[in-house]
Each structure stands twice: as structure tokens, then as C-alpha cells.
Design goal:
The protein is α+β, with helices and mostly antiparallel strands. It is 51% helix and 9% strand.
Length: 215
């Protein structure tokens, strides 16, 4: 069985969970709690890779780390190449470049939001920060999406990642109402809809993270 290791939060693992659920792959969440003892003192030392990190994925003898690499491995393993922008047979498609570009842009966007929200002045300046730092990226994604249901035209991992980025933004900006149709579309994919109703998903709520940020 595939094992996905990560902290006891959504973080960079949640969109990978959504991908696993979409693929209907049996997997186990290996959860590390806040003190980090089990990870730093045991598993990190024993993980069979030169680059131990969280999240990690263990698939038999194969160990994959880094949040942007794990979904590529999964798409290739299960021959769902279109999920990473390639053609259905795994051959190159220009969408693959767009996939990687937007994936990195969204990760940077999310990291910037997390960093901004840890600064005390964020509470007073959050609307201005959104206008100056985030709004332009969302406008570019909106243009890329156009009239399509999904960012690349077809469903890809990028859509799961963007969905999670949007949920993070909603956490910090509860009144923010953007891409609501897109969010509904992802949440109504049968496999995702079923997962969102499970006890496992309920573990990874945002609310308990509030003491880490300024609202």
C-alpha cells in the first residue's frame, strides 16, 4: 500500500491526497504531530532516500519526496499522463510546460501568503496586500482558464492544487468570492465529493492553525 507521510495538517499534502482519491488508489496517511520527534529522530533518518523530506510517498521500494514531484510520479505510475499536461500516451504536449509553470507560480503564491500572514501587520494590511501582491496572479489564472472548466482544458493535478490554494486564500480572506464555480466543480467530482465527507478529511481542518497567523 502507498504511504503518504506529512505533518498533521493540510499543507502541501492535501492536493496530493485529492489526487490519490481521484485515482482511487488505496493509501495510508502517515501523520507526524507537532513536536516532530518521530519524524526528526526516527523516520527521517531511516527513510531510504538521499533527500528525506515531508511530504514523502513510499510505494514499495520507491521513495519520492518533494510536493511538486510526487504527483508527477503518481500520474506516470498510473499512466494518467494527461494529469500532468502530457498526451494520453505520455508523449510531450505543450501543456506540460504550462502545467509546470503554473504549478510553480501557485506554490510561490501560497508561500508568499503564508509568509505575509505571519507578520503582525497583516491583519490591518491584508486587503492592500491582496491587491498589490495576489490579485494580478489570479487575473492571469482567470485568463488562462477562460471558458474552460479546467486550467489546461482537461482535468489535471493543477486543478487540485489550485483548488487547495483557493481554500487557503478563503481561510485568510473569508469574504473572498472568486472562482466559486471552479471550486464547486472540483468539489463535485464524485471521488472528491466522497472524500470531503469522510472522517479522514475532517482531520485536516484549517481552524486549528489560526494561532500561527495574524487575522
Amino acid at each position: 500500500m502507498i504511504v503518504l507521510g506529512y505533518w498533521n495538517l493540510r499543507g502541501y499534502a492535501q492536493s496530493i491526497r485529492l489526487l490519490l482519491e481521484y485515482l482511487q488508489v488505496e493509501y495510508k496517511d502517515k501523520i507526524y504531530h507537532e513536536n516532530g520527534d518521530e519524524w526528526f529522530n526516527v523516520d527521517k533518518k531511516e527513510l531510504k532516500t538521499d533527500f528525506p523530506n515531508l511530504p514523502y510517498l513510499i510505494d514499495g521500494d520507491i521513495v519520492v519526496t518533494e510536493s511538486l514531484v510526487i504527483p508527477i510520479y503518481l500520474a506516470k505510475k498510473f499512466k494518467k499522463y494527461e494529469l500532468i499536461g502530457q498526451n494520453h500516451d505520455g508523449s510531450f504536449n505543450q501543456k506540460e510546460i504550462t502545467f509546470l509553470q503554473i504549478l510553480q507560480i501557485l506554490k510561490d503564491l501560497r508561500d508568499q501568503l503564508n509568509a505575509s500572514a505571519k507578520v503582525p501587520s497583516f491583519k490591518q494590511e491584508k486587503d492592500q496586500i491582496f491587491k498589490e501582491n495576489f490579485n494580478l496572479i489570479f487575473e492571469k489564472i482567470k485568463k488562462q482558464l477562460g471558458e474552460n472548466s479546467y486550467i489546461l482544458g482537461n482535468l489535471s493535478y493543477l486543478d487540485f492544487y489550485f483548488y487547495e490554494v483557493l481554500k487557503v486564500f478563503q481561510f485568510f480572506y473569508p469574504k473572498l468570492s472568486i472562482f466559486t464555480d471552479f471550486i464547486d466543480r472540483i468539489e463535485n467530482i464524485p471521488q472528491i465529493k466522497a472524500y470531503l465527507q469522510t472522517k479522514q478529511n475532517k482531520i485536516f481542518l484549517f481552524d486549528r492553525m489560526k494561532n500561527q497567523f495574524y487575522f
